[in-house]
């Protein structure tokens, strides 16, 4: 039972909350509109997410996830598991805080950064010849000559074709005799160009790392995360997405203090 | 180095894969179009996801999640955590397999089920007077008289206002002296109506369970999951979403054999 005064206070605080809430929704909406997304129709959807399991490729040194079944329908009437995993497993996000102390953690990123026009830069032809291929500033400029300037708020993904190695972790990591990894990524110059000369929300790759395999200083990471943008690694199915015109939805991690974590990423157009 | 024959085989298998892929994308697209979603514009977005942490309310008997920091920027040059959690924590999905042996696990649900027209049924007024309030068939019919028949492929969410208790787990569970829980949910009859008389993809609640607190047989769960549909529990911010006309994106779990798991759910309209 609530006294009338209590109810009135609740009503007042609810209406204040819904005013705030509606302003926030409009803010996210404004970002979508700015990004040229508002008013857009779509009729196709592709999952950019790999299945997550203990068998997937991981960066050297990371422990595989564990899935422990606690209850089953047969024995308990319902089925459920406990999950134990390193945040940077599978198709996942690197939040700015992954490399920069005090930068935003994944759960704090605004919703408007997680719904973004998706630009896919195809470098699969050069990557087929050179596992150390990188997305260069020239690749970005060539993309823009063909598809127009990267829209404000864009998410820029590299499609290198590396995904075909996903089910073979050894081939996906591609370590040489000295232990150096070899796979494509963004060049530090391209990363700097995107955060300085364009207004992006983040970059993504179909490989294990934003930086190419041999990188020792993770300069593309530092540049992108240092600018408050996020990264997505181990993206799937980018070959199926048009280079321009799709919209990316990132079902990003929402746990407290997330340096990143598995995402569900979907492209619609 | 690849011999020409190998390259040709790769090219052929890639083109077969991309044909298959494009058919699948169109299939998801067709589902969107059927659902009346194709051609739809949107300019607002609201996060339906609570922050996940060791402090959140959990169903009695479930162990809180653990977040263990393994590396920090200061000590290691980068920051990352290990997560250890029960699948049914926070804003999360119940896949059909959670209650039905052999039914689909979360990662197997088609993408078209995760992008759905969102119907929000408001029962916060009766729930404010009765914590054991349920969404009834009459509530659904009253909703349809006002907003039109539930669209094909709809996701139907209950907004009971229970979210205001989220930060107080004791109040969110609302156990009486005998240990019985008290909070709103879907009545078994309403669940049966939705899966038999309408074509829904799933149902969701802003409480701990699809079934209302006192339920002993979880009949709404059994009915919905038994029909191959999914549930979302502990949804946030439903008060901010229009009853009709929004689109739901469910960033659902993609781990192997998922009985469910934390999701990132977003409404756009």
Describe the structure.
Two copies of one chain form a homodimer. The first copy, chain A, is an alpha/beta fold and 269 residues long. Chain A has a single domain, classed as Glucose Oxidase, domain 1. Helices cover 29% and strands 23% of the residues of chain A. The first copy, chain A, is built from eight helices and 13 strands. In chain A, strands 1-13-11-5-7-9-10-4-12 form a nine-stranded mixed beta sheet. Chain A has a two-stranded antiparallel ribbon with strand order 2-3. The first copy, chain A, starts with a helix and ends with a strand. In chain A, 51% of the residues are buried. Mean pLDDT of chain A is 89; it is low at 1-24 and 30-40. Strand 3 of chain A pairs antiparallel with strand 3 (80-86) of chain B, so a sheet runs across the interface.
User: What is the structural class of chain A?
Assistant: alpha/beta
What is the distance, rounded to the nearest whole angstrom, between the alpha carbons of the first and last residues of chain A?
50 Å
In the CATH classification, which architecture of chain A applies?
A: 3-Layer(bba) Sandwich
Which fold name corresponds to the CATH topology of chain A? Glucose Oxidase, domain 1
According to CATH, the homologous superfamily of chain A is: Putative cyclase
Instruction: Report the order of strands and helices of chain A.
Output: HEEHEEHEHEHEHEHEHEEEE
| Cα Rg of chain A | 21 Å
| Strand order in space, largest sheet of chain A | 1-13-11-5-7-9-10-4-12
Largest sheet of chain A: 9 strands, mixed
Q: Main traits of this protein?
A:
homodimer, 269 residues, alpha/beta, Glucose Oxidase, domain 1, 9-stranded mixed beta sheet, 8 helices, 13 strands, 29% helix, 23% strand, disordered N terminus
């Amino acid at each position: 039972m609530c006294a009338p005064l209590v109810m009135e206070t609740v009503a007042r605080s609810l209406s204040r909350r819904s005013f705030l809430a509606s302003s926030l929704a409009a803010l996210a909406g404004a970002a979508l509109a700015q990004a040229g997304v508002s008013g857009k129709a779509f009729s196709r959807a592709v999952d950019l997410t790999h299945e997550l399991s203990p068998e997937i490729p991981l960066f050297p040194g990371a422990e595989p996830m564990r899935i422990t079944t606690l209850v089953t329908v047969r024995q308990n009437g319902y089925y459920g598991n406990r999950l134990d995993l390193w945040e940077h497993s599978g198709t996942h996000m690197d939040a700015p805080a992954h490399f920069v102390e005090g930068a935003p953690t994944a759960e704090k990123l605004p919703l408007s950064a997680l719904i973004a026009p998706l630009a896919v830069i195809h470098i699969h032809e050069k990557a087929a010849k050179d596992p150390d291929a990188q997305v260069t500033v020239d690749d970005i400029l060539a993309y823009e000559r063909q598809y127009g300037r990267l829209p404000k708020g864009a998410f820029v993904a590299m499609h290198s074709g590396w995904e075909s190695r996903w089910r073979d972790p050894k081939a996906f990591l591609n370590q040489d005799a000295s232990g150096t990894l070899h796979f494509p990524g963004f060049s530090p110059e391209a990363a700097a160009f995107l955060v300085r000369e364009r207004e992006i929300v983040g970059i993504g790759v179909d490989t294990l790392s934003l930086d190419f395999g041999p990188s020792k200083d993770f300069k593309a990471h530092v540049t992108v995360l240092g600018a408050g943008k996020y990264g997505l690694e181990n993206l799937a199915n980018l070959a199926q997405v048009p280079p321009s015109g799709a919209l990316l939805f990132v079902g990003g991690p929402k746990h407290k203090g997330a340096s990143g974590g598995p995402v569900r990423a979907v492209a619609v157009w």
